[in-house]
Design brief:
This protein is an alpha/beta fold and 400 residues long. The protein folds into 2 domains: 4-127 and 180-214 and 382-395, Rossmann fold, CATH 3.40.50; 217-380, Rossmann fold (3-Layer(aba) Sandwich). It contains 14 helices and 14 strands. It has helices at residues 17-31, 66-69, 76-88, 106-113, 151-155, 162-177, 192-200, 242-252, 265-271, 286-294, 311-318, 349-361, 364-380, 383-395, and strands at residues 4-8, 35-39, 93-96, 118-122, 135-136, 139-140, 186-189, 208-210, 230-233, 256-259, 278-282, 298-301, 323-326, 341-344. Strands 2-1-3-4-7-8 form a 6-stranded parallel beta sheet, sandwiched between helices. α8 (242-252) links the parallel β9 and β10 (256-259). The longest helix has 17 residues, at 364-380. It is globular.
């Protein structure tokens, strides 16, 4: 049966990893002869689509107008535009990604009123943390206990700002009261760790399925030759463990290339500018990033936060490169110790340095582990497995 699937997301362009999965999901469904219909706020960066006539205006939360600020909690424009879309098009099922703060729970009201089954892929910890990431002051924080969101105000969790944190706390409580859990028929967690956290804080485990993000490995040309440098690519933030990674690299006297941008880049770049083996290359994408990964010896994922499912690991494996990853969050679901990489305790400079030295002494180690990494993405994270799991979830609900 061919389905008309409504796909809701805060952005209709690729702003981050969750947006890429949003587009990948639509593409996979399209390849399997389903009709993927997008719904997102208007944005100058959005890709063109015939469906953008239904897109609501975007929200500028910096506006001082109370009427506009209220849309951060309940977007009336999104509700009205979605009602128009549904009145003119038949929808069998709605698949939500990240929608809060821009589309808001207003769309849940419309969908539930029409008795359209609602599935949501969870890419973050929003249902149990108003700051989305279980982080405060660049450290892991579970102070709200998954539901007492007002507690975040006491800690000023968002940018140490009382105003921003209060807005997020109010939005989380409002969304909860308006059905961000009860009106959604089923949730998809992108890692087992994410599901465990959600269940720990009260969500029904029977209402959550684990479906790992897919990757089309046919689009990645592996290079199993051992390079000479270690590589990090991703956001440059404190929670990503960049500084401890650099210290381990210096201790091991290895060449480390750091690709990406973020709040910590300038500070760290200034701190280590005298060390020629520590290179900050800035943001890279496309062929530039592909070349850097292919020519590396190994890539590193040094997070000290609850990373849910880093796409950088999947991409590294697809290019035939092993990964050194911290043993936290969803990372161990990807990196298998001494099989396709190595795991170490988050922030442990000595342990990471020892692993770096292993690769330095035995570059051929990269070949064997890289082959295993490539096999893993081909066998366990391919599009077919993703499609089968999602369709099994869809089939559990009666299509309208």
């Amino acid at each position: 049966m061919s389905l008309n699937i409504l796909n809701c997301n805060n952005y209709f362009y690729i702003r981050g990893g969750s947006d890429k999965i949003f587009f990948d999901h639509m593409e996979i469904m399209k390849e399997m002869n389903h009709n993927s219909i997008p719904f997102a706020p208007k944005d100058i960066k959005s890709f063109e689509t015939k469906w953008d006539k239904y897109f609501p205006d975007s929200i500028d939360i910096s506006s001082p107008e109370i009427k506009k600020m209220s849309n951060f909690f309940y977007n009336v424009s999104a509700k009205n535009n979605l009602e128009k879309l549904l009145s003119e098009n038949k929808i069998n099922i709605a698949h939500l990604h990240i929608y809060y703060g821009r589309l808001t729970t207003s769309i849940l009201d419309v969908l539930s009123k029409k008795s359209i089954p609602i599935i949501q892929t969870l890419h973050d910890y929003k249902l149990i943390c108003p700051n989305n990431n279980l982080i405060n002051n660049e450290k892991i924080c579970e102070f709200c206990n998954g539901k007492f969101f007002y507690k975040s105000i006491f800690k000023k969790c968002n940018d140490s700002s009382l105003i921003k944190t209060t807005a997020l706390a109010v939005e989380s409580h409002f969304s909860r009261s308006n059905g961000d859990i009860t009106k959604v028929n089923h949730f998809i967690a992108v890692s087992r760790f994410l599901k465990q956290k959600l269940v720990q804080y009260g969500l029904d485990e029977n209402k959550i399925s684990v479906v790992h993000n897919p990757i089309d490995s046919s689009k990645y040309e592996p290079n199993y030759d051992s390079g000479k440098y270690f590589l990090y690519f991703g956001r440059i933030e404190k929670i990503k463990g960049i500084k401890s990674m650099i210290e381990a690299a210096i201790k091991s006297n290895i060449e480390l290339k750091i690709v990406g941008d973020g709040n910590e880049r300038e500070k760290l770049e200034n701190e280590y500018q005298q060390n020629p083996k520590i290179q900050f290359l800035g943001f890279k994408s496309g062929n530039d990033l592909r070349f850097l990964i292919q020519k590396s010896l190994v890539t590193i994922c040094p997070s000290i936060c609850y990373d849910i499912f880093p796409t950088s690991i999947l991409e590294s494996f697809a290019y035939g490169k092993p990964v050194i990853g911290s043993n936290i969050g969803g990372i161990p679901e990807l990196v298998e110790n001494e099989i396709n990489g190595y795991l170490y305790e988050p922030g442990n400079i000595n342990q990471l340095s020892l692993i770096m030295n292993e690769f330095k002494k035995n570059p051929k180690l990269s070949y064997n582990l890289g082959v295993n990494g490539r096999s893993k993405v081909e066998e366990k994270f391919n599009k077919s497995i993703y499609y089968e799991k999602v369709m099994k979830i869809y089939s559990e609900f009666q299509y309208k």
